[in-house]
Design brief:
This protein is an all-alpha fold and 146 residues long. It is built from six helices and no strands. The radius of gyration is 16 Å and the shape is globular.
C-alpha cells in the first residue's frame, strides 16, 4: 500500500509528473533562495521535457528576476502560460480546461493593466493577482507534463 505522500485524492498513486509540477511550483515560489546551479538543473530538466526555448527563457526570467516589480513577474508568468498552451496543447489531457485557462489569462492581464495605471498600486490586489497567476501557471504546467 502506498504511503499518504504518494496518494492522490481518489487514493490512486500520484503520477511522477504531478511531483515534478509541485517541484517546479516550489522552485518558482522560492526563487530568491535558490542558487543559480539549481535553476540551471531545472532548466535542463525543462529542455529534456521538450519545453520550447521561449518557455525556458520565461521560466528563467520568473525564477531569476532581480526586479522587485511583481507586475512584471506576473506578466512573465502569463507569457509562460500562453507559450505552454500554444506549444504543449497536443500533450494536454482531453479534459484539460484550455478555454478556462485562456479566460483566466485574459482576466489576469486586464488586472495587471488596471493596477499598472494606478498611481499608488494596491498591494492587496497585486498579491491576489500574484496568487492567481501562480495558480494558473502551476495548473498549465502540471497538465503539460502529465
Amino acid at each position: 500500500m502506498p504511503n499518504k505522500a504518494t496518494m492522490g485524492k481518489s487514493g490512486s498513486k500520484v503520477k511522477t509528473g504531478g511531483k515534478a509540477a509541485a517541484a517546479i511550483g516550489i522552485v518558482t515560489m522560492l526563487a530568491s533562495y535558490i542558487t543559480p546551479e539549481m535553476i540551471e538543473k531545472t532548466v535542463s530538466w525543462l529542455k529534456d521535457q521538450r519545453f520550447s526555448d521561449k518557455f525556458v527563457e520565461l521560466f528563467k526570467m520568473i525564477s531569476q528576476s532581480k526586479d522587485n516589480n511583481p507586475l512584471k513577474k506576473i506578466g512573465y508568468q502569463c507569457d509562460a502560460v500562453e507559450e505552454a498552451i500554444e506549444t504543449k496543447s497536443a500533450e494536454f489531457p482531453d479534459d484539460a480546461p484550455v478555454a478556462q485557462w485562456h479566460q483566466e489569462l485574459a482576466k489576469i492581464r486586464r488586472g495587471v493593466a488596471l493596477i499598472s495605471k494606478e498611481t499608488q498600486p494596491d498591494r492587496r490586489k497585486t498579491r491576489l493577482l500574484q496568487q492567481r497567476s501562480k495558480k494558473l501557471f502551476n495548473s498549465v504546467f502540471a497538465a503539460a507534463i502529465n
